[in-house]
Amino acid sequence: MLKAYRYRIYPTDEQKVLLAKTFGC
Predict the structure, then answer these.
(1) Would you say 11 and 19 are in contact if contact means Cβ atoms under 8 Å apart?
(2) What is the pLDDT along the chain (25 residues), one digit of tens a residue?
(3) HEC states along the chain?
(4) Global model pTM greater than 0.85
(5) How far is it, in rounded angstroms, from Cα 23 to Cα 4?
């Protein structure tokens, strides 16, 4: 959850890809 929260603070292109992979969307 910490990582997801940090991603929401400053969502970059790379982080968006990592977040998408994490959720499996």
Answers:
(1) yes
(2) 566 666 566 667 877 888 788 877 6
(3) CHHHHHHHHCCCHHHHHHHHHHHCC
(4) no
(5) 10
The whole-number pLDDT of residue 19 equals 78
Place of tokens 């959720």: 23
Q: CA torsion, points 7, 13, 24, 1, in degrees to nearest 10?
A: -10
Residue whose structure tokens are 């292109």: 13
Structure token pair of residue 16: 């968006």
**Distance (Å, whole) CA 3 – CA 13:** 15
